[in-house]
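With this grant's support, we have settled on a layout for protein records. A representative record follows, to show the layout.
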Amino acid sequence: MKALIRGMRGEFLKMRHTFLPLLHIGVPVSGCAVFLLYYRFSDWDEMNRISGYTQVIGVALPFLVSIVCAGNIRLEEQNHFQVLLGGWKAKWKGLTVKYLVLAGMGLLTITGALALFGAGSWLLLPAFGEGKSFAAGMYLPLVAALFLGSLPLYLEHLFLNLAFSGTVSQCVGVAQFLLSALFLTGLGEGRWRFFPCTWSARGAMLALSGIYQENPGDVYFAELQQTVFICLLLLAFICVIIGLWYHYFEGRQCND
């Protein structure tokens, strides 16, 4: 455990002088500011404001994760993966530490984005006389849906950056971005659970539907249970496949 904590601290130190910390701060602040400014002069109701904001976060996550993972792996490319592959007695710990740090930073970013939006909505939007029925605690299911949906993305893009290059990862991130947006329509009904890049956006929609229904009913909980089961099964499968691949990973040429 101490080794993992030291490794996580090392990851933070490596990223300290890169664009990654600024990205995790600047994106939620600027994105929240743009949406609040737009909603300040629009007549959207409360549910549609929150739904639109969370869906945009969910759709953007695949591309943002690809950028974050590419930036982090470039630090390893500078020493030809010697620290990542040779700095741990157990090889898997290096990838695990990297995954936990990046996912943890993602959780803080998502939480900050929704917290800023909630506070900004409360302070700025009441000027239109709209009642505030969306309590602060109701943002927690949205944070959980967005964050849990992003977990396979970090695994996928760490794999793509390690096995291929940052360019490949970012191209896949763009494709996932488009697919996630497309699956917010009726095309995604019944299919989105099998595409991890859509979990954050569609999961936020599912969480919102439960929040705004006083009595969600058996149909909602059956859908939620089925969704959780399929997503956990696919996540476990992704972990096993990438874990087996990483066991035999010995580095690659760093000529991206």
Summary: The two ends are 34 Å apart (CA to CA). The longest helix spans residues 91-124.
